[in-house]
């Protein structure tokens, strides 16, 4: 079977690998070089997803297992998956209560969450400033972080070893692109909306949910963190070479899509010393702005496109978490076998 995979972000790369391993003749077509995609710059926190939706939770739990299968199957490659967990805390009574409610929700689902004292937290991350912590620090030991810029070349190389061909170019119209292929798998992130007009993805800046996002990569710091940190107002993950990636949800809401974002990047950076005092001399090394591929109802879209024979789509704003499992599932489904874990994610729910 000849399959065209459109997109070489995390979703396209993982799907291409699993399809090629399953014996499909795979061509990957990507508008950009993989290292310039959203996936290569993403925050990369992979976790159980409690959206009060058991199908999403079950999929994300399987995703954490699939992360490890991917590492094992790709074999000799630089490390991209780090299993050090995630620390989360509040700054006042209201935010501490909100954190507690989130943690209790996960515990009810059977997902482990520990409550740490400041002293215990310091043992994990000695560099953090924790004087203003309100309530316990919640530690999610099963959460992981993924370095997209390391994963992508490793997985695409492995896919090529398994026979996939990778081409850089634009798909243009889907009908033209699919000429000569038995099936097309659209993994174009936000670009899926151009390939499949009417696909229910939110427009950038739509008020319903956060779509635009800005990620700051810092210069190397002397004492970086080793795990995902969600401090009040600032999220941090380790990058390679002692660098950090910083993200502020509230500042994402100020992005308009026009003009210079360096002032916003500077605001993000200015929050760092209050959380990690020894990183006070860090500078902005790189700024990335992207648009989350956000389905209208906040759930992922996975499955065949109704009315378009042989066309399958994946669009998700949890792409770094779900890519390994969705790659496995899409490969099976494109080759003809339905998978129960994605039954709730079909496009037909919008009909
Ligand atoms: C600020 C921010 C933080 C985030 N944090 C997290 C997080 O912590 N955890 C998490 O799981 N997710 C997170 N996400 C979301 C995650 O980054 C995305 O869900 C994921 O990167 C999407 O992967 P993708 O492969 O679908 O798309 P992309 O990585 O965007 O790749 C799309 C690919 O399609 C190609 N393409 C597009 N249009 C065409 C076309 N017409 N022809 C040919 N090729 C085309 C592109 O060139 C590219 O190769 C975050 C997103 C943002 C913005």
Automatic annotation (TrEMBL):
Q: Which Gene3D superfamilies match?
A: D-Amino Acid Oxidase, subunit A, domain 2, FAD/NAD(P)-binding domain
FAD dependent oxidoreductase domain residues: 2-332
Q: Which residues cross the membrane?
A: none
- Extract one GO molecular function annotation from the record: oxidoreductase activity
**Swiss-Prot/TrEMBL keywords:** Oxidoreductase
Can you supply one Gene Ontology CC term for this chain's record?
A: cytoplasm
Which InterPro entries does the UniProt entry name for this protein? FAD-dep_OxRdtase, FAD/NAD-bd_sf
Q: Which Pfam families match?
A: DAO
**What protein name applies here?**
Glycine/D-amino acid oxidase
What is the scientific name of the source organism? Nocardia interforma ATCC 21072
Species classification: Bacteria, Bacillati, Actinomycetota, Actinomycetes, Mycobacteriales
Which gene holds the coding sequence for this protein? focR
């Amino acid at each position: 079977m000849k399959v065209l995979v459109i997109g070489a972000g995390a979703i396209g790369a993982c799907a291409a690998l699993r399809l090629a391993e399953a014996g499909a003749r795979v061509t990957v077509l990507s508008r950009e070089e993989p290292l310039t995609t959203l996936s290569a710059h993403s925050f990369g926190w992979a976790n159980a997803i409690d959206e009060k939706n058991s199908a999403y939770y079950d999929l994300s739990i399987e995703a954490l297992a699939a992360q490890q299968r991917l590492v094992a199957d790709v074999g000799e490659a630089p490390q991209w998956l780090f299993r050090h967990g995630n620390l989360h805390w509040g700054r006042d009574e209201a935010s501490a209560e909100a954190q507690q409610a989130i943690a209790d929700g996960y515990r009810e689902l059977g997902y482990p969450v520990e409550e740490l004292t400041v002293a215990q937290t310091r043992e994990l991350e000695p560099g953090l400033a924790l004087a203003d912590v309100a309530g316990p620090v919640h530690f999610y030991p099963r959460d992981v972080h993924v370095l997209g810029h390391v994963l992508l070349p490793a997985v695409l190389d492995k896919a090529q070893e398994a026979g996939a061909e990778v081409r850089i170019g634009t798909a243009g119209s889907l009908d033209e692109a699919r000429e000569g292929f038995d099936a097309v798998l659209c993994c174009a992130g936000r670009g899926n909306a151009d390939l499949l007009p009417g696909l229910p993805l939110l427009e950038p800046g739509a008020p319903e949910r956060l779509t635009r996002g800005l990620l700051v990569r810092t210069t190397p710091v002397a004492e970086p963190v080793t795990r995902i940190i969600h401090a009040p107002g600032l999220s941090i993950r380790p990058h390679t070479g002692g660098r950090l990636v910083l993200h502020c949800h509230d500042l994402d809401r100020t992005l308009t899509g026009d003009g210079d974002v360096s002032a916003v990047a500077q605001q993000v950076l200015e929050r760092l010393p209050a959380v990690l005092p020894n990183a006070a001399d860090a500078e902005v090394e790189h700024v990335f702005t992207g648009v989350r591929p956000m389905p209208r109802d906040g759930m992922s879209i996975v499955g065949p496109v109704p009315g378009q024979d042989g066309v399958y789509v994946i669009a998700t704003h949890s792409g770094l978490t779900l890519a390994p499992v969705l790659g496995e599932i899409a490969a099976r489904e494109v080759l003809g076998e339905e998978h129960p874990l994605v039954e709730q994610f079909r496009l037909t729910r919008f009909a």
